[in-house]
Write a structure and sequence with these properties.
Elements: H1 4-24, H2 33-40, H3 51-62, H4 84-96, H5 107-123, E1 131-135, H6 138-155, H7 161-164, E2 173-177, H8 182-190, E3 199-201, H9 211-220, E4 225-230, H10 242-251, E5 255-259, E6 284-288, E7 300-304, H11 307-314, H12 344-378, E8 383-385, E9 393-398, H13 402-415, E10 421-425, E11 428-434, H14 442-462
Parallel strand pairs: 2-3, 2-4, 4-5, 5-6
Antiparallel strand pairs: 1-7, 6-7, 8-9, 9-11, 10-11
The structure holds pyridoxal-5'-phosphate (PLP).
């Protein structure tokens, strides 16, 4: 019988072997969910087992069902690389078993969050006085930021939502770009703001909020108001014109929240930050670590200019929980959970790994790769770019009908040289390409483009 340490060593061995293989391998097809279910299905274990053997069994069963999202030719959804340095920091995080709830339970975790928070604000060009909550991702970051927004806009009209809830509260007007991400609606639902009662603001053909429509909507409302913009539309990469919309929102006393799950990282690049100009004028920002910062899942940041509103919405107190004192930062005052993973370790490690220069270089390289891929693809007859390439995202259509686009995506996935997915945009199916992994190079992008062209040529022959 081996001990738990042997299991940890086995996990490290298996993980390193996997990452070595995936770094150079083609994007192999993964087993289906049904196959994985069959592989794992067994009666509830009656007795325990050998630690190392359990981990070896886990790796053997799971590996066929591991999507190669850490590989160099993965362009699906918007997924970072789980960089080895971040993974290693995360292993330590798990091994240390820290509960990042408070300063006494986890002094190192609490301190590293405080430091990583200041680094994040600096890199993202956001106000130094803003507070940062380390959450699971942009979905929860949106929820946390909008909870602070709800608290503050109601406080300004004399309503204490934390104490009195929403029953009988003054209504809140929520103005939101019509191409907002689905998870913002989740946050709105969790907060009782009603996904169905928002006022949609019209967007341009790339999904950017139209300032004129926002001006009209904001002039019409009389209720306390939250405006929700976005940096990085999930399909197009487009960012709202913050330098225009922030003064409109600020001038009318509205709270401006920005969903910047990946696009906020344009702020970290001298060459790309013009795309997010004015975003620092907002009141709150949601972004992810597990996308462009390349941390392992899960990692996101809820950033709020008014730290007091942030704490009002989230802080937890109980006699058995030691409070932070003076300038100390209480890690649980900025997140919905009490007990939670110490995400500051991986965040700190990834910022240390890449540095300001490395992050800027990565954002710029991904943007250049996306543009290069799109330019090569649209040179092929029958292939069309849906809107101009913004940041690291673009969409392509094949042939005249949706069926050709879907058939090409299916063919690319079956060929398994690279992984690219689909989405709908303005009522049509598109191939949606996201360049988000630090493993992706220009050479790997070229191999991918060759594979896409080959797939399309075979589909076109059957049309
Ligand atoms: C613009 C935007 N907002 C929110 C989210 C949700 O982020 P997460 O899945 O990290 O919670 C995403 C995810 O891709 C996104 O692109």
């Amino acid at each position: 019988m081996s001990d738990g340490y042997a299991a940890m060593a086995e996990a490290a061995r298996q993980a390193i072997a996997y990452r070595r293989a995936v770094a150079t391998a083609e994007t192999t097809p993964v087993a289906t969910y049904a196959e994985m279910l069959a592989a794992f299905s067994a009666p509830t274990p009656e007795r325990g087992g050998d630690p190392q053997a359990i981990i070896a069994e886990l790796a053997e069963c799971a590996t066929p069902g591991i999507r190669a999202s850490t590989g160099p030719r993965f362009f699906g959804w918007v997924i970072g690389n789980s960089h080895p340095t971040g993974v290693a920091a995360d292993w330590l995080t798990a091994a240390w078993g820290q509960n990042a709830a408070n300063l006494q339970a986890a002094p190192a975790a609490a301190a590293i969050e405080a430091v990583a928070a200041t680094w994040l604000l600096d890199l993202l060009g956001l106000p130094a006085e803003a507070s940062v909550g380390f959450v699971t991702g942009a979905t929860v970051a949106n929820f946390v930021c909008l909870a602070a927004a709800r608290s503050e806009v109601l406080r300004r009209v004399g309503w204490d939502v934390e104490a009195d809830g929403l029953f009988g509260a003054p209504p809140i007007a929520v103005l939101i770009g019509e191409d907002a991400h689905a998870t913002v609606y989740s946050a709105i639902k969790y907060l009782g703001l009603g996904a169905g009662r928002v006022r949609m603001i019209a967007c341009d053909s790339s999904g950017r909020m139209l300032t004129g429509d926002l001006e009209r909507a904001i002039a019409e409302r009389t209720d306390p108001t939250i405006v929700i913009g976005q940096a990085g539309q999930i399909n197009t990469g487009a960012c709202d014109p913050f330098a225009e919309i922030a003064p409109v929102a600020n001038g009318m006393g509205a709270w401006l929240h920005v969903d910047g799950a990946f696009g906020l990282w344009a702020q970290a690049s001298p060459a790309q930050k013009h795309l997010t100009a004015g975003v620092d004028l907002a009141d709150s920002w949601a972004t992810d670590g597990h996308k462009w910062l390349q941390t392992p899942y899960d990692c996101g940041f809820a950033i709020v200019r008014d730290a007091e509103a942030h704490r009002r919405a989230m802080a937890i107190t109980a006699s058995y929980l030691p409070p932070a004192e003076g300038a100390e930062r209480d890690p649980s005052a900025y997140v919905p959970e009490l007990s939670r993973r110490a995400r500051g370790f991986a965040t700190w490690a990834m910022i240390r790994q890449l540095g300001r220069e490395g992050i800027a270089a990565m954002v710029e390289s991904h943007s250049a790769i996306a543009l290069h891929m799109a330019e090569r693809l649209v040179a092929v007859p029958g292939v069309a770019l849906v809107c101009p390439v913004e940041l690291n995202q673009f969409m392509i259509r094949f042939g005249a009908a949706d069926a050709a686009t879907l058939a090409t995506i299916r063919q690319v996935q079956e060929d398994a040289v690279a992984f690219i997915g689909s989405a709908q945009w303005r009522g049509h199916w598109v191939m949606r390409v996201s360049v988000t992994s630090i493993a992706t190079t220009m050479a790997e992008a070229d191999v991918t483009v060759d594979a896409v062209i080959s797939a399309w040529e075979r589909v076109a022959d059957t049309q």
